[in-house]
Design brief:
Blueprint lengths: L1 H36 L5 H41 L2 H15 L7 H31 L2 H5 L5 H5 L1 H16 L1 H17 L7 H22 L3
C-alpha cells in the first residue's frame, strides 16, 4: 500500500510539473506574438467575445475532470489533459485496454494499462499529425480532402467515433442507460436549439444518469 501511495505521489508531482510546463508553452505563443508585433487585444472586446465561450468550457472542463479522472487514473489523466482529444480518443483507448485485460477501473493494473494506452495513442496522434503536415507541404492532398464526395465522411466523423464509444458503454449497462438516453434524446428532439449549449447540458445528463442508476440499484434492477 505504501509503495502504491509513493508511486501516486510521484505521479502527481511529475504530472503537475508537466501540466504547468505545457500551459506555459501554450500561452507563450500568443504572448510572444503580441510582444514581437506590439499587437495586444482590446480587453473589453476580448471579454465580450470570449465570456460566453469561457463559461461553457469551464463547466465542460470541470465535468470532464470529475468524470474522466476516476476512469483513467492518475498518470493517464495528466497525459490526457495535456494532449487533448480525451472523449473521442484517449478515454476509449484506455477503456479498451482495461477491458482487454479484464482490469477493473481504479485498480493498480488499470492505472498502468491506462497510462500506457494513452501514452501510445498520444505518440500515434503526433506521428499522424506530423505525417499530414509533411503531406500538406509536399503534395496537393488539401484539394483531395476538400472533394465534395468526402464531405459526408468528415461531417460524420465525430458522431461515428462517439457512437462507437457510446455503444461500448451502453452495451455493458443497458438498463441504466435507457432513462438518461431517452431523456436527452427527447430534450433535443423537442428543443433543437439546445444543441448550441452542449457544455451546459453535460452536467444535466450526468445528474440524470447518476439518479437513474441509483434508483435502478435500489430497486434491484441493475
Amino acid at each position: 500500500m505504501n509503495t502504491v501511495k509513493t508511486y501516486k505521489d510521484k505521479m502527481h508531482k511529475t504530472g503537475r510539473i508537466w501540466i504547468l510546463t505545457a500551459a506555459a508553452l501554450m500561452f507563450a505563443v500568443p504572448i510572444t506574438t503580441c510582444i514581437v508585433y506590439d499587437a495586444w487585444p482590446n480587453l473589453q472586446s476580448f471579454l465580450k467575445g470570449s465570456l460566453s465561450v469561457i463559461i461553457i468550457f469551464w463547466i465542460a472542463g470541470s465535468v470532464e475532470a470529475l468524470t474522466y479522472i476516476p476512469m483513467i487514473g492518475t498518470g493517464g489523466s495528466y497525459l490526457a489533459f495535456v494532449t487533448g482529444n480525451i472523449s473521442n480518443l484517449k478515454l476509449p483507448c484506455a477503456l479498451n485496454a482495461m477491458k482487454a485485460a479484464n482490469a477493473e477501473p481504479g485498480s493498480d493494473e488499470a492505472e498502468v494499462l491506462s497510462t500506457i494506452a494513452i501514452g501510445i495513442s498520444s505518440m500515434v496522434t503526433s506521428l499522424v499529425v506530423a505525417l499530414f503536415l509533411v503531406l500538406f507541404l509536399v503534395t496537393d492532398i488539401q484539394s483531395v480532402l476538400k472533394m465534395e464526395v468526402l464531405k459526408p465522411a468528415f461531417d460524420n466523423l465525430l458522431p461515428a467515433l462517439l457512437g462507437g464509444y457510446g455503444i461500448m458503454i451502453i452495451s455493458k449497462h443497458v438498463k441504466m442507460s435507457i432513462f438518461p438516453l431517452l431523456a436527452m434524446l427527447l430534450l433535443f428532439a423537442f428543443i433543437p436549439s439546445l444543441s448550441s449549449a452542449l457544455g451546459v447540458l453535460v452536467p444535466v445528463g450526468i445528474i440524470l444518469a447518476i439518479v437513474s442508476a441509483r434508483l435502478f440499484y435500489k430497486k434491484g434492477w441493475a
